[in-house]
Amino acid sequence: MTCMLAKLEKWQRNLIVLWIGCFIAGIGFSEIAPFLSLYVAELGNFSKGQLTIYSGLTYAITFLVVAVVSPIWGHLADRRGRKIMLLRSSLGMAIIIAACGFVHNIWSLLILRFLQGLCAGYIPNASALIATESPKEKSGSVLGILTTSYVSGNLIGPVLGGFLAQVFSIRITFVLTGILLLIVFFLSLFFVHETFTPAPESKKKIKHISPLSQLKNPKIIIVLLFSTMIIQMGNNSITPIISLYVKELMHNVGPITIIAGIIAALPGLSTLIAAPKLGELGDRKGNRKILVFGFLFAIIMYFPQGLVTSVWMLGVLRFMIGISDGALFPTIQTILSKESPSKLTGTVFSWNQSFQALGSMFGSLIGGIIPNFFDYNGVFIFTALSLLINFLVVIIFLPELRPSYNKNKK
């Protein structure tokens, strides 16, 4: 492998190694999710209400911490380099997730989940490093390819985690996940190359300058960050209800959990297929067109999901949602990288991670609250309306992102 990598250009070598690293990281982060609430149940004699609260806290606390600390890590990445952030994240996560397998009460688990949030940041720092080390004309393609890595890992992770928990135990699965992330640490340590020159620090004492003031168009950055939050909110809003909705559509007959798992995985599968092609198309035809397509396609696909009467039609529509994700997430990252000076790429990508974490948190809350008032179909309609409003905001406040903008300018 070392000889093969040595023949490639540095940015190509980074892409291969970081693809493998993000793939393994995606597996490690997602394979625990399906049984985390079952693990909570093993840690005490809880009532149904207590179990629901503690499970919710266990999931939410990591997202909350990620949202708060990501900008701090991003600022350090711009000052010290992205590779050291990759090493910090992968090694920290390896130790903490493995340690989760040895806890014996809920409070210890909550503390470790809190620390897990502090150690997050591998994937956004990998994206930032790829964005800055690759040729600008290929940034859409390489970020699209990198997207397939953690999406693939997220697809395989839940299946692998369920298998390991069944064959061994939940505790052993935490330890095995830690070992996977340790492999990611060594891959990043030995094979990732970064050409990083920190910005020279002035000897004079100067006032702190906001990173936003150093951006040529901060309005684009702000709108795209909120777009990341809304898109991720939509993706996560179905998580609390997917099994229940499938159960209702199947009239409580048949292999409900298997079908629900397949439907949950379908968006990731289509993202895996679509992201590289759409990234390449964005490099040739323009990122603005791909962004508009992604929004419109998502809106069209979300509305009917709440109106279907067949689980198979739901599956088709969920598969289509993955195509919109493959258009939106890499394109937003590409535009963020192009609109940010290289010295602030890590900062901007960390903001993006914070907003994505907030979207995950809000999505879970929405998916749990809205069905109490509007049934399950209300979740999909709310998500479609949120994306429609988001799209209108993009078009109204960012005319430079309209496909016709450059033509009108001429």
From TrEMBL:
Keywords: Cell membrane, Membrane, Transmembrane, Transmembrane helix, Transport. It comes from Liquorilactobacillus mali KCTC 3596 = DSM 20444. GO terms for cellular component: plasma membrane. The chain crosses the membrane at residues 16-41, 53-73, 85-104, 143-168, 174-199, 220-246, 258-278, 290-313, 357-374, 380-401. InterPro entries: MFS, MFS_dom, MFS_sugar_transport-like, MFS_trans_sf, Tet-R_TetA/multi-R_MdtG-like. PANTHER family: MULTIDRUG RESISTANCE PROTEIN MDTG (PTHR43414), PEPTIDE PERMEASE (PTHR43414:SF1). Its main location: membrane. It is found in: Cell membrane. This is MFS family major facilitator transporter, multidrug cation symporter MdtG. It holds the Pfam family MFS_1. It is a multi-pass membrane protein. The lineage of its organism: Bacteria, Bacillati, Bacillota, Bacilli, Lactobacillales. Residues 14-402 form the Major facilitator superfamily (MFS) profile domain. GO terms for molecular function: transmembrane transporter activity.
